[in-house]
Design goal:
This protein is of the alpha/beta class. It folds into three domains: 52-86 and 138-436, 3-Layer(aba) Sandwich (Alkaline Phosphatase, subunit A); 487-553, 2-Layer Sandwich (Arylsulfatase, C-terminal domain); 564-605. Helices cover 35% and strands 13% of the residues. It is built from 16 helices and 18 strands. The protein has helices at residues 6-35, 74-81, 95-104, 108-111, 141-147, 217-231, 256-259, 270-283, 307-340, 366-372, 390-397, 410-413, 440-447, 471-474, 537-553, 565-604; strands at 50-56, 83-86, 89-90, 151-157, 175-179, 202-204, 207-208, 239-244, 347-353, 417-421, 430-431, 435-436, 456-457, 460-461, 487-492, 495-500, 503-507, 518-521. Strands 7-6-5-4-8-1-9-10-2-11 form a ten-stranded mixed beta sheet, sandwiched between helices. The N and C termini lie far apart (100 Å).
Length: 605
């Protein structure tokens, strides 16, 4: 063996020392970035906050008590009272596009999730804007927080892509237990809520998860999140905890003890509830006094229903309210854990719904549902039973707004949202300016003292975040966050909108519209009852041009003339699942039947 040269031997300790200093310097730099944000909200050097994101599924604008609802949501309301409620906050009108924007701060078409995969027209499926999963040109807020020393956890509904590159470990999460589809049964994790695929897909840390035979989804998601936090309880690093609840997605289900609390509560019907919620929301300063209520073509006349129908419908809403309260109860358990471990005071809480309440009637799935579930009134909400809210109750959940999930009216895309906790000043507890789900990621980065990436991440080109930081609103500033004349565009399944100041240009397909543009002042008239196109023709024309420019820039495609989202779901379900899975067997049985029939007829002749 060759002996080392004296000169090299003498230099080696110096190199080790230099390397050690570099490692120490890097470690100190990382610690400074995480524990001492450059510009924390309180203006002083402080430890970076923990972040808890709570995403409800299909909650209407006034379902939350602090937004005017009668449902008991004490734990969420207590959090809301410590922070700022955003009353003009918008998402997409369905789950996947909203969640893509929440995680990335990038508009959904640019992120590749311009529509739900299930309802995307076949002609759109080769477009980069309509892949139904996050593309590789976006970076998640979880990745950025993890890069700067955060521990990152997610439990619950994921729904932004089940490809290996899109599962939580590749999108910045250290630990994860997620449901990859649009939903599942809330009592039986293996049960599909609709026959979109061969099974419900669950993933733990990027691999197929071993699920319990029975659970209650809201409790299980919080159990797993608390478990992750306990495992790393000794860590001094801050954490991101993202809980994607399935409440109140169909099937609407809840524990019996919560359902019992609401017996008889909704016997007066949906119209009375809608008016009562409008009045409470106005009293809380969330909407103008006497906000007009639009009459939806899908809302039935409660008085015209027979007593048996009224009782069944009231039971549906009792179960819906119970599901929301059960979720709130689980939020209370998570909050109690944070208080017990001393983390509560340094935690920022973000709550939102992914879209407005759902008004689908699910008639197209009735034949399948009857073979899988009971719809008996005495079993509604329990294991093996299937309930929906339906269009009439959805109009009350979204009160005083017009429309519901999947549509571009305010009831589909304006949802309850609040931010509270560490560093949030509540001198102005209600913010009425226009805000959007893409604003949340840049807000959280700023609260953590982390610069948002521009157009590159780890050497690769990315879409820059489109949202605005909500920091001024969290400090009590009531000024508009968007510049005068700035536009905010939106499209989903042919339903479209464009916001500009207090004006909103909107069009919806049947049954809530005729595919024609309308113009509303959604500050004075959030219920969208007074079309202003005749009074403001110049603005009406200019905003249509603004929308077309926005649509061209974001890769928005027009839907086919005969497009119907419910029919499209059936087409995609048949072509993507049923035929590939059962096609050969069905073809063989059909051939045998036709051949046998032909032989029988020949013999009869």
């Amino acid at each position: 063996m060759t002996e080392p040269q004296p000169a090299l031997t003498a230099q080696r300790p110096l190199r080790w020392i230099a390397a050690g200093m570099l490692v120490l310097s890097a470690g100190l730099s990382l610690a400074t970035t995480v524990k001492a944000p450059a510009s924390p909200l309180n203006g002083k050097t402080a430890q970076a906050p923990n972040i808890v994101i709570l995403v409800a599924d299909d909650w209407g604008f006034s379902d939350l008590g602090s937004f005017g609802g009668e449902i008991a949501t004490p734990h969420l309301d207590a959090l809301a009272q410590r922070g700022v409620r955003f009353t003009n906050f918008h998402t997409a009108a369905s789950c996947s596009p909203t969640r893509s924007m929440l995680l990335t701060g990038v508009e959904s078409h640019r992120a590749g999730v311009g529509n739900l995969r299930e309802s995307t027209p076949r002609a759109h499926m080769n477009s980069p804007a309509y892949q139904g999963s996050l593309n590789q040109r976006v970076v998640t807020v979880s990745s950025l927080l993890k890069d700067h020393g955060y521990r990152t956890y997610v439990t619950g509904k994921w729904n932004v892509g089940s490809e290996p590159q899109n599962l939580p470990p590749q999108r910045g999460f250290d630990r994860s237990l997620v449901q990859g589809d649009t939903g599942s049964d809330n009592w039986d994790p293996a049960q599909r809520y609709l026959p979109h695929t061969d099974k419900t897909y669950w993933y733990e840390d990027g691999q197929a998860a071993v699920m319990p035979k029975q659970f209650y989804s809201s409790a299980y998601f919080v159990d797993r999140m608390i478990g992750y936090l306990r495992q790393d309880q000794a860590s001094a690093q801050p954490f991101l905890a993202y809980v994607g609840f399935q409440a109140n997605h169909v099937p609407v289900q809840a524990p019996a003890e919560f359902i019992a609390k609401y017996k008889g509560r909704y016997d007066q019907g949906w119209t009375a509830l809608r008016q009562a919620r409008r009045d409470r929301a106005a009293a809380l300063g969330l909407v103008p006094d006497q906000t007009p209520l639009a009459t939806l073509p899908t809302t039935l006349d409660w008085a015209a229903q027979d007593l048996q129908t009224q009782r069944y419908e009231a039971r549906r809403m009792e179960v819906y309210a119970a599901m929301a309260e059960a979720m709130d109860h689980q939020v209370g358990r998570l909050v109690a854990h944070l208080k017990a471990t001393g983390q509560y005071d340094n935690t920022v809480f973000v709550f939102l719904s992914d879209n407005g309440a759902e008004g689908s009637d699910y008639k197209i799935a009735q034949a399948w549902l009857w073979t899988q579930y009971s719809q008996d009134i005495e079993r509604l909400g329990g294991p093996g039973a299937y309930s929906i809210q339906g269009p009439s109750w959805a109009s009350a959940s979204n009160s005083p707004l017009n429309g519901f999930k999947f549509f571009a009216h305010e009831g589909g895309i304006r949802v309850p949202m609040f931010i509270s906790g560490a560093g949030v000043q509540s001198a102005r507890p209600v913010y009425t300016g226009l805000t959007h789900v893409t604003d949340i990621a840049p807000t959280l980065l700023e609260m953590a003292g982390i610069a948002r990436p521009a157009d590159r991440y780890k050497g690769q080109p990315i879409e820059p975040m489109a949202g605005h930081s909500l920091r001024p609103a969290l400090q009590g500033d009531s000024a508009a966050l968007r510049r005068e004349g700035e536009i905010l565009g939106y499209e989903l399944s042919g339903n479209a909108a464009l916001f500009k100041g207090r004006l909103k240009l909107v069009k919806n397909l049947s049954p809530l519209g005729r595919g024609e543009w309308q113009l509303f002042d959604v500050v004075a008239d959030p219920g969208e009852t007074r079309d202003l196109q005749q009074r403001m023709p110049a603005e009406f024309a200019a905003m249509q041009l603004d929308y077309q420019r926005w649509a061209d820039a974001h890769g928005v495609l027009p839907v086919p003339d005969d497009y119907n989202p419910v029919r499209q779901v059936t087409i995609n379900m048949t072509l993507d699942y049923w035929l590939p899975t059962y096609g050969p067997a069905m073809a063989l049985l059909t051939a045998l039947f036709v051949g046998g029939l032909y032989t029988w007829r020949r013999r009869r002749r």
